[in-house]
Specification:
By secondary structure, this protein is mainly α. The protein has 2 domains: 2-71, no CATH class; 74-141. The chain is 68% helix and 0% strand. It is built from 7 helices and no strands. α5 packs antiparallel against α6 (113-127). The longest helix has 36 residues, at 73-108. 3% of the residues are buried.
Length: 157
């Protein structure tokens, strides 16, 4: 399964339009510089050679460099992983307590407005995409100074 995901990611990355060198060079883009960078990074090599190099790097813990910031991906992961874990655990705990409480309340009061409200919230939570729920939460809780910062984390809006 993991091999399939890695292969799909590699192939999708290569199927995308555009030149990675252009993204790395940004405003300093020049055809000669781009060709030199593509050669240096091995983007001119045949696809099987690139795949072998990519898989070898992954096996050694080298995830390459970001095409956006040109920093090692492992460094970016080290920087953002604590916030991701904190957010995930907080969401898990909140969902467990709210879901359990709402479930018990709706079970104790069948066919009441609590039952209908609980069913509506549960159905919306399952049906709406998670990014949309996140956007709505930011709009509700992050507007008009309701929270000092929508995220509370340095470097994030």
């Amino acid at each position: 399964m993991l091999l399939g995901v890695v292969l799909a990611t590699f192939l999708l990355h290569h199927a995308l339009p555009g030149d990675p060198a252009a993204a790395l060079l940004g405003k300093n883009y020049d055809k000669d510089k781009a060709a030199e960078l593509n050669e240096k990074l091995g983007f001119n090599d045949p696809l099987p050679v690139q795949l072998a190099r990519y898989m070898g790097g992954l096996a050694q813990g080298d995830f390459g460099r970001s095409h956006v910031s040109n920093e090692p991906v492992t460094e970016e992961l080290k920087r953002v992983l604590p916030a991701t874990i904190e957010l995930g655990l907080t969401a898990l705990i909140l969902a467990a307590f709210v879901g359990t409480g709402l479930g018990v309340l709706t079970a104790l009061k069948p066919r009441s407005w609590w039952d209908v409200a609980g069913l509506t919230v549960a159905l919306a939570g399952v049906s709406l995409p998670i990014f949309w729920l996140g956007f709505l939460a930011l709009q509700v809780f992050g507007q008009n100074g309701a929270l000092e910062s929508a995220t509370g984390l340095p470097g994030l809006p």
